[in-house]
Amino acid sequence: MAKSYYNVIETLVSIFAVDKGTIKILLKRKKREPYRNYWIIPGHVLSNEETLETSVKKTMENINPVNVPYIYETKSFSSLDRDPVERIIATNFNAIVVKELVNDYEMEWFDIYSLPKMAYDHEQIIESNIKELKSRILHNDDNILLKFFPHDFTLTELQSFFEFVLNKKIDRRNFRKKIFNDNIVSHTGEKIKTAGRPGELFVFNKGGYFNE
Amino acid sequence: MAKSYYNVIETLVSIFAVDKGTIKILLKRKKREPYRNYWIIPGHVLSNEETLETSVKKTMENINPVNVPYIYETKSFSSLDRDPVERIIATNFNAIVVKELVNDYEMEWFDIYSLPKMAYDHEQIIESNIKELKSRILHNDDNILLKFFPHDFTLTELQSFFEFVLNKKIDRRNFRKKIFNDNIVSHTGEKIKTAGRPGELFVFNKGGYFNE
DNA sequence: ACAAAAGTGTTGCTGTTACACCCATGG
DNA sequence: CCATGGGTGTAACAGCAACACTTTTGT
């Protein structure tokens, strides 16, 4: 192909959600060659009549059920040979949603620590996304915790989530003390049934941050 | 123009450097219409034979003198009307360099808090970059302090830098205590002449981080 | 000797860690 | 009554904030 200043761009949307204190990612199975039956991050090729943001929105809308997501751009991937067929530049976005059953047989939620066989460079892209995501969670940048937990939750769930992100155990009393001290959650008054004593339910205060 | 899946992409490189405890950005004056004599972030249009990274490298190499820079991608800007002439998607990279005199009459260093008249959406792009940059500095992500200060410096300089970033005064004793405690700098044994008592010079320890 | 900037310690406060027992519910 | 998971307090320690005087150099 001759040198040109026109390029093909695709947006990829890495969709994350909490599931029982772990983080899952929503992936799509490839139906056709190349990489048939390998998994990919969902996305679309960008036309010259849309913005990156509208393209991402299109991807989200194609996945049902949709819930209002939080989305931000992470990085672009532009190696000349990342696609064996043609040169495509990928720009990745991370989306945080509430996990729901997906009624598309070609899509599935995976634990971010045990991904299936990924096509192209999508495994590296996800690795890079996870790193960025964790740092954003630990700083609670942009109030991202609220995006993961827009609904009510127990402190045990939240603690598992942090243990998952930090990959280490946290002392329960200290964790609760910190959460209460930082004033980022409120009681709902409700309780949730579990195998033992019912847990109190909390919600995040809007505008509550860990730092500052 | 008809709908197509080909797009024009430009890389922009926002080049930052410390200057006496402040942060400056290197901008280029536009010689031609549109936006003649307005200022822009330097960059290049991407061909289909290069990656985003090689395009950025080309931009850096056109600016003399070059010193080995630290570069990372921030965000892309893709509004349909951001360029009045044609549809161009901009992907921004931030570069941290050591400030030197630039022997190009069309380029100049500006304090990031007092930018000149900017062309296109470049003022918003810089605003977004500055926000990202500050957060990276405060977390010392990727050891970015070392990129700003690869040479030796006095603690007074470093403190001014933090005061500039935080936009508030810091107590000198507490600042020095923290820096020493965190073990991120070493004495060089050298001193620098100032208007008063000479200051001791320090360098960053490689691999020294504020957190973790 | 004075002007200019660099260097230095102590105290109180606040947040973090380490640690073990009782409580509420369902079966 | 037992299994399961939820909820709670205290003491030692570490990091952070507030605060003013002395030292080194050039003129």
Give an account of the 3D structure.
2 copies of one chain form a homodimer. Chain A is α+β, with helices and mostly antiparallel strands. Chain A folds into 2 domains: 3-122, Nucleoside Triphosphate Pyrophosphohydrolase; 145-204, Winged helix-like DNA-binding domain superfamily/Winged helix DNA-binding domain (Arc Repressor Mutant, subunit A), CATH 1.10.10. Chain A is built from 5 helices and 9 strands; from the N terminus they run ββββαβββααααββ. In chain A, strand 8 (185-192) and strand 9 form a beta hairpin. The longest helix of chain A is centred in the middle third of the chain and has 18 residues, at 122-139. At the A-B interface, strand 5 of A face strand 5 of B. The first copy, chain A, binds a DNA duplex (27 and 27 nucleotides) through residues 154-156, 171-174, 176-178, 181, 193-200.
Quickly list its features.
alpha+beta, DNA-binding, Nucleoside Triphosphate Pyrophosphohydrolase, Arc Repressor Mutant, subunit A, seven-stranded mixed beta sheet, homodimer
